[in-house]
Amino acid sequence: MADQNRHAVSVKAIYRIPTGNSQDSSNLSETSCSFDASNVEIGVIGLPKGFKATKPQAGDYTYSGMHDQGPLPPPKEGGDMALLIGCVQEAKKHSDNFLTEVIKKEKLHSPPPEKGKASKKSKN
User: How far is CA 108 from the centre of its chain?
Assistant: First the structure.
């Protein structure tokens, strides 16, 4: 049992969103979601299957499998780091979807802007 928990990897996302028009911390809606080996796929560290190593364009810092002197050896796949990558990728997808829904709800419940009034922009 202790050995099983020794390599436990998970990511927990907690969202605290103000409800209504108040910025008062007592009016927060809290939602959380956890990601671990039970609900995510192991992340791919190297190139996906079927992709060949190619020299990247200048300024592109994504993993390409290629170095100035030629192809890189494939990275070790699997393990705790690959699981952590998978958890973070899934948490990001969940966050994007969750926040998109929050924005849509705010737009539905917000009064339309008054015509003829210029928006205030601060210069900092």
Answer: 25
- Kindly report, residue by residue over 97-114, the tens digit of the pLDDT: 999 998 898 888 887 777
Instruction: Count CB atoms within 10 A of the CB of residue 71.
Output: 13
Alpha-carbon dihedral of residues 93, 96, 100, 106, nearest 10 degrees? 130
Note the pLDDT tens digit of each residue in 33-58. 999 999 999 988 889 888 999 988 89
Assign residue 79 a region: left if phi > 0, alpha if psi is -120 to 50, beta otherwise? left
* Amino acid identity, position 61: Y
Q: Which helix (H) or strand (E) holds 25?
A: none
Number of other CB atoms surrounding residue 21 within 10 Å:
9
